[in-house]
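FORM 7B - TANDEM STRUCTURE REPORT

SECTION 1: FIRST PROTEIN
SEQUENCE AND TOKENS:
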Amino acid sequence: MATTTLAKPEQNERTTAALVHVGAIFVPIWIPLIAYLVTRKDREFVAAHARQSLVETLVLNVLIGIAMLGSLCYTVVGLYTLWQGGVENIDWSEVVWQSLLRLGVWWLVMGVLWLINTIVSVRQALQAHRGEWPRSARRRAARAG
């Protein structure tokens, strides 16, 4: 895909690229991956948008994984601290409230990440539908030419 100029995409390519971004909201990794594998050789515009969507989906999943790992570590440390204080001294109402608070914060973080993903995907779908190439493809073409 080392072309020096970026061709103006046809309407069906623009629509397909936009649908890849919208599909990534609902089926995050699979839609961009399948679209990229199917279009990488003959539909450069769609493949570029699918690659962009796939990378952003993977970044989002890494952020979710970091949030999950942080939550797990916080929970394990909290349980260990409770265990060190002795099981008979545990205030179970406090444990329940802390757990509910932690769960609420977790869902808030997940909701914010999903909202960011949705806004970015819709914005990029609109850009794809207008026929704009992803920034990474424009940079790659500028370096090659």
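SECTION 2: SECOND PROTEIN
SEQUENCE AND TOKENS:
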Amino acid sequence: MIQLNNIEKLYRTDSIETLALTNINLKVSKGEFLSIMGPSGSGKSTLLNIIGLLDKPSEGEILLDGEKLNSFRDRKLARIRNHKIGFVFQSYHLVNDLSVVDNVEIPLIYRTMSGKERRRRALEALEKVGLNARTKHFPAQLSGGQRQRVAIARAIVGNPEIILADEPTGNLDSVMGQEILEILKSLVSDMGTTIVMVTHDDSIAMKTDRIVRLFDGSQVN
């Protein structure tokens, strides 16, 4: 489903060049749950952003379902992101002034869809993560684990084929982290979702299908 060939990412300023990624070759199969691990500054989030089409590589090619995406314009890449990819972040990125259900609806605003259909899908997504009793609450009224469940519901509301999760358990205690992991695993088993997750937690990573390790921007396994 996802293929990266000879990916390199170089950041340039007037006085310095920083090689964030080099010679990354990666294939992720449909329905696979992949972990990316490595020390701080090893390129994990950069790699996730490139897979998620939020950033472009300096060299190399990206393929999604066998289709090369490098030459696509920003508008087309945005459409692919909205329809095929869901994002989950460590700090949740919820809008505090919106209710839980309104937060979950956000990705659907950019689709041609009635308000009634948006609400139906949002409620369905919240039920999948066990928050159907918290739809009218606001983020400040929720625990960290509940906020992350809202973030997952928002990520899956558009039925994406791919979920990209950047340290989704990083702000949670071990018990809640395991609960979030189980929700992600259920997306793989029940819906066939492909998940690529950045994590620093070995106990979390060991429960996924495969681990890719980065060091100084390079794969080390």
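SECTION 3: OBSERVATIONS ON SECOND PROTEIN
The helical segments are 44-51, 74-84, 100-105, 115-128, 144-156, 174-191, 202-205.
Strands lie at 2-12, 17-28, 33-37, 59-64, 67-68, 85-89, 162-166, 194-198, 210-215, 218-219.

SECTION 4: SIGNATURE
Preparer initials: ____
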